[in-house]
Write a structure and sequence with these properties.
Blueprint: H1 2-16, H2 27-57, H3 62-89, H4 93-97, H5 104-137, H6 142-154, H7 157-171, H8 180-202, H9 208-215, H10 222-226, H11 230-240, H12 244-278, H13 299-313, H14 315-346, H15 351-358, H16 362-376, H17 404-434, H18 438-455, H19 459-464, H20 473-478, H21 484-503, H22 508-537
Helix pairs in contact: 1-5, 2-5, 2-21, 3-5, 3-7, 3-8, 3-11, 5-6, 5-7, 5-12, 6-11, 7-8, 7-12, 8-14, 9-14, 11-12, 13-14, 13-17, 14-17, 16-17, 16-18, 16-21, 17-18, 18-22
């Protein structure tokens, strides 16, 4: 049994990370990705340094380590809800593995191992680096770093197993649903609802009086985060208090949940996976109305709608590209609202009084909201996969009697619309929470409209070197380092807005005008460059 699990784990790891020793990467791509990772690492280190330094000033530095541990656990829970659905049910490996003489539990155990390994990449960036910075600034001994590695190695096991079991349980009831897109959408909405519930409960486990009592103690705030979830408490105690018993409990509980997850999947996994393999994509015959069948919608609208249909029809694109852009920002804002409301009430201040107070700091509020907008829209990757998603069919672009420049523009429009839609939703929610003035709302729209047009210009990177040969849709999204480019660019702009807001202390209107001009100029220059260079860049499409 263990030999089969080990062999399957190696197989799934190769497909998950698309390991291909015979394929050589271009030096330019390696340098670009190295610079992007170095930039992200620098941002994480700098942000961690500032956060620890601030908390040390109020004698609550231990709370930083607790926040990082809790953030890793909750983020892993949300990310793995999406990842486990694709890996467990919509991976091309299933067609090859299911006919083999292996049990469902063995397949799931191997897939859980690959998911945990994938989660280690995320943990290294938002777990290992911040906690290392904390250790250096607080003068921790070598024992701390050993415990840190052990805790971070164990921490993803529980959220990965919980996410996988939830998905397996939900998918076991979808046997009668023949529409694969409907199954995936239904499952993801329920799973995200579960994640939201965990986040909401996590933000309200302590009363206001308890929070204030702990805040007034030296490093007392860490107790608030230790009480969020049992595994967070054990991990924090093991790391900060050198509590070996808590570490052993965390290891034992993680191993138990892992074993129970495998046993649970033994009964339910095959029900859902067979349904996912043989369900339709939702394709059905439409009744043709002779009066309207030949009514043209216009070339631009037809092309753009065709692009959106591709994203909607393929389950991986729907879950990995569209749903996170639509749901995650709203989820984050709602959780933030309830957390902030509880914090305000705990300090004896109502949200209404808080909104009245911040009106005297509108330039700072405006800059912070712009940074939130840039952060919420950084996960829109439609433009950097707009051509690669077509695979070999992208070559038909050169046979369609439409100029390549126009086709590239139409392919970039969905990304522009998603960024604009995300911005509108975020602005409306933030305006409701903070009761922003109409002028502030108008200025926010003034900034984000040209930025959304500029965002579509990221299609340049996909046009320049499209990934036309791939085994499954997951490779385009999850194993495509090109998606790091929008994240890095957004982080640059977030840093720029932070400098203009907090260092230069610009007023709201001049800052809005400056950002609008910068984004408008970038959008214009990008469009002009693509207009002149599309034919040359399109040589990579063949």
């Amino acid at each position: 049994m263990w030999k089969r699990i080990k062999s399957l784990t190696k197989l799934f790891l190769k497909t998950t990370f698309h390991f291909n020793p015979g394929k050589k990467k271009k030096k330019g791509s390696i340098i670009l990705y190295a610079l992007l990772f170095a930039y992200l690492i620098g941002i994480v280190i700098y942000g961690s340094y500032e956060a620890v330094d601030f908390l040390k000033g109020i004698q609550q530095e231990k709370a930083f380590a607790a926040i990082i541990i809790m953030a890793n656990m909750l983020l892993a829970l949300v990310v793995m809800l999406i990842g486990s659905l694709n890996v467990l049910y919509y991976s091309t490996d299933n067609l090859a593995v299911l006919p083999l003489p292996v049990k469902a539990g063995e397949i799931v155990a191997a897939k859980l191992n690959s998911l945990i390994a994938y989660e280690y990449i995320e943990t290294a960036l938002i777990g290992l680096l911040p906690l290392s910075v904390y250790g250096v600034l607080t003068g921790q001994s070598w024992i701390y770093y050993v415990l840190m590695i052990v805790v971070l190695a164990i921490l993803p096991v529980i959220p990965v197993c919980i996410s996988a079991c939830l998905i397996i349980f939900l998918m076991s009831f979808t046997k009668g649903l023949r529409n694969k897109r409907l199954v995936q959408l239904f499952t993801m909405l329920l799973a995200l609802g579960f994640s939201f519930s965990v986040s909401f409960i996590s933000s309200s486990v302590r009363s206001e009086a308890d929070v204030m009592a702990f805040f007034n103690q030296v490093n007392g705030l860490v107790e608030v985060y230790k009480s969020v979830l049992p595994n967070v408490s054990w991990a924090v105690s093991a790391l900060l208090d050198r509590n070996i018993l808590s570490l052993l409990i965390l290891i034992a509980v993680s191993a138990l949940i892992y074993v129970l997850s495998v046993l649970f999947s033994q009964k339910f996994y095959f029900k859902g996976v067979l349904s996912s393999l043989f369900s339709s994509g939702g394709i059905h015959k439409k009744k043709v109305d002779e009066k309207t069948s030949f009514k043209s919608q216009g070339l631009p609208l037809t092309y753009i709608l065709k692009e959106f249909r591709i994203y909607l029809r393929r389950p991986t694109y729907l879950v990995q590209l569209l749903l996170p852009t639509l749901v995650v920002p709203v989820l984050m804002l709602v959780v933030f609202y309830f957390s902030a409301k509880q914090g305000m009430e705990g300090s004896g201040m109502s949200m209404d009084l808080f909104t009245e107070m911040i009106r005297g700091y509108e330039p700072i509020v405006f800059g912070c909201v712009v940074m939130v907008l840039l952060f919420n829209t950084m996960y829109s990757f439609l433009s950097v996969v707009a051509i690669s998603k077509d695979g070999k069919d992208a070559a038909f672009m050169k046979t369609i009697p439409v100029p390549l420049w126009e086709q590239v523009l139409y392919k970039a429009v969905p990304d522009m619309l998603m960024v604009l839609f995300d911005s509108v939703v975020t602005i409306l929610i933030v305006s409701f929470i903070l009761k922003l003035r109409v002028l502030v709302i108008i200025l926010l729209f003034l900034v984000m409209i040209p930025f959304s047009f500029f965002h579509g210009a990221f299609i340049y990177f996909d046009l320049r070197a499209p990934k036309l040969y791939w085994h499954n849709d997951l490779e385009i999204v999850k194993r495509n380092f090109r998606v790091m480019i929008p994240i890095a660019v957004h982080m640059v702009f977030i840093a720029l807005v932070a400098i203009l807001t907090f260092v230069a202390e610009m007023e709201m209107v001049p800052l809005a005008v400056l950002l609008t001009l910068v984004f408008s100029l970038l959008a214009f220059l990008s469009c002009l460059f693509l207009y002149k260079k599309t034919d040359t860049l399109a040589k990579a499409i063949y």
